[in-house]
């Protein structure tokens, strides 16, 4: 009983006596180190970025996550896809954001995670950055043409660019881009359906390109191979979060 009364009295006693020696307030949390920028697809309906934010918050990685809006508004998918000058202007702003972060916090890693049409924004931003500005770039279901020249973008990547593509993404990145064109304005299947087809996959900066084809084993994560598959939090936790560790060398 005495111990119970003492436990009740202690908080009230502190109101008058202050904290006892050695009972200082916990130190403020250290500022987060590193930045992940998520670039969603066309049409202003982004599930991937918020899902990645949720997953990253529970990962223990000391990073901030920034959602980078770049489109013309909800439902305006064709404007996002076809207005190249607007997209390039947003890509320039993205490149500026990376430069500012690197200037303010040198030595801390930056990662780009782009989905679908947002891959074009990421690629154009990378093309404007100095070598090694970004630790890794991850393109999910990219709506770029298979022959898009990734060389200039890869020079800005310190480690690698990882591309996730699926032969089952036939509605959006097959029929869709055949009818309406890819983000780089080529009518035909996207790299998110068939992969990129570089002229010399192991030459120069293209040696940093790694492509991951969808496989049946990914279905257990909620990624069934369609266009929304990479939005699955379980998929992001298993396949994407490990790539956000600077020291990671594992293969998917």
TrEMBL record:
**Pfam assignment, any one:** Hydrolase_4
Query: What domain of life does the native source organism fall in?
Result: Bacteria
InterPro entries, alphabetized: AB_hydrolase_fold, Hydrolase_4
Q: Which residue range or ranges hold the Serine aminopeptidase S33 domain?
A: 92-165
Name the chain's protein.
Serine aminopeptidase S33 domain-containing protein
The species is Aquisphaera giovannonii
